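Re: Re: ligand-bound prediction request (bumping)

Still looking for help on this. To restate: I need the protein modeled with glutamine bound, output as structure tokens. Inputs repeated here so nobody has to scroll up.
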Amino acid sequence: MEEQARIKPSKLKLNITWLYPREMSTYGDRGNVLTLYKRCLWRGIEAEVEEIGIGKNLKKDWTDIYFFGGGQDVAQTLVAQDLLGDKKKILKEEAEEGKVILGICGGYQLSGIYYRDFEGKEIEGLGILDVATRAGSKRMMGNLVVETQFLEEKLVGFENHSGKTKLGQNAKALGKVVVGSGNNGGDKTEGAIQNNVYGCYLHGPVLPKNPAFADYLLHQALLKKYGETELTFLNDSTELAAHEVALDRAHKTH
Ligand code: GLN
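Reply:
Sorry for the wait, this slipped through. Here it is.
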């Protein structure tokens, strides 16, 4: 049966939960939260950001978009311990209900089944992405360009990780590596998607220079909350100029 068009409030609102802003915001990943927030306000959509640090409880059902940034191994271990228990239970339920969740690098790794560090210590992940990561001896660093099947524009950014991530059966790749290493430097996959959970190694931060990806996530969150909602046009000339510079630089350095 066709889904009834839901009555939308006069003022749309998206609630963004930023997981571990102090511990997991390596390489400016905080810029992703700012991008989602601003791209709502520029369109007259209300937005609110809640920061969830270690020891702070999640509010189930409040959040429309979760953001989980990158961090060093030490921070990852700390955060992983805090995630187990209530937070993991809530985030699994939210992921299964189709909430938008974006994890970058360390946040991506902890969204998987486990992260095994270089000493072989295994850190339990959230299990909201069917991926597993093992730290390697070589760091994968540099510009990263990814071709996806759901965006016209390629994604550009940079990567800096030793973790090698492999996809399980229930996750599909975010895209194909055009320049760089991606998930593991071997199978040409980059990132992962499962339900509305997205993970990748793209720092930059990824969303300011890839406005189409930012809007894709916003659209998914609005669709989930209010039903089909068209995003009004934004003049992304500055963002797209930065995108072209990054794309050009990536091709020149590989
Ligand atoms: N500690 C992880 C690794 O090196 C993630 C690093 C990061 O978030 N940039 O693979």
